[in-house]
Amino acid sequence: MALNCKSSTWFEAKIKSEKQMEDGLTKPVKEDYVVDAFTFTEAETRILEEASAYYSGAISVESLKIASFKEVFFDEDPAADKWYKVKIQMIIPDEKTGKEKRTNINYLVQGASTQAAFDNTKEIMKGSLIDYVIAAITETNFLDVVVYDDLDKITAKKEEQKEEKEEPVSGEEGFEPLD
C-alpha cells in the first residue's frame, strides 16, 4: 500500500453548475471538491479553472471554507476513489493531574472503502510514539482533491528564463556579429 501525503491549507468548495448526464440531458448539480490554495480568492479561481473542463454552462462557487484538516493522504491504488475524513485522538497523559488528555487531529484519507481508509490510517500512524485512537471515519462527498503543484510551475518558469537568457553562438541561427 503506497500513500503520499500533502500538507497545506485546504479549502472545501461546493460548486453549482450543469452537467451532461449519460442520457445526453443536462442537469443542475452541486458537487464538493477540496482545493489546495493560499487564499479564498486563489481557491475560488483554482476550482473554477479545474471545474470548467468537466461542466457545461455557468459554474459558480456555492460555498468555500477552510477545511478542518491540514494533511491529505493519497492512495495510489486505482480502486481508491473515495475520500474519508478521519478523526484521530492523540492520548497524552497530563503530568499534573495524571489524567489522559485527548487532542483531536483530522486527516483526509483516500481509500476504496471504509476498511481501506481504516487500514491507510493505521499505516499513517504506525510510526507514532504517542498513543492514539481512531475516533471516527466518515465518508465524504468530495469528488476530487485539486492539488497546487508548485514544483512543476517553478521548474517550467526556470526553463523559460533559461531559454530567454541563452544567446546564440557563432554559426547558430540567430547569431549576428557586432560591428
Please specify the SSE layout and strand pairing:
Elements: E1 3-7, E2 10-20, E3 26-36, H1 40-51, E4 56-66, E5 71-75, E6 82-93, E7 100-111, H2 114-125, E8 131-139, E9 142-146, H3 150-165
Parallel strand pairs: 3-9, 5-7
Antiparallel strand pairs: 1-5, 2-3, 2-4, 6-7, 6-8
Structure overview:
The protein is 22% helix and 45% strand. With 179 residues, it is α+β, with helices and mostly antiparallel strands. A five-stranded mixed β-sheet has the order 1-5-7-6-8. It has a four-stranded mixed β-sheet with strand order 4-2-3-9. The model has no long low-confidence stretch (mean pLDDT 85). It contains three helices and nine strands; from the N terminus they run E-E-E-H-E-E-E-E-H-E-E-H.
Strand content: over 45%
Apparent shape: globular
Overall mean confidence score, pLDDT? 85
Total count of strands: 9
Count of alpha/pi helices: 3
The computed structural class is: alpha+beta
State the major sheet. Answer: 5 strands, mixed
Order of helices and strands: EEEHEEEEHEEH
Low-confidence stretches: none
Radius of gyration: 23 Å
Q: Strands of the biggest beta sheet: in what spatial order?
A: 1-5-7-6-8
Roughly how much helix do the residues carry, as a percent range? 10-25%
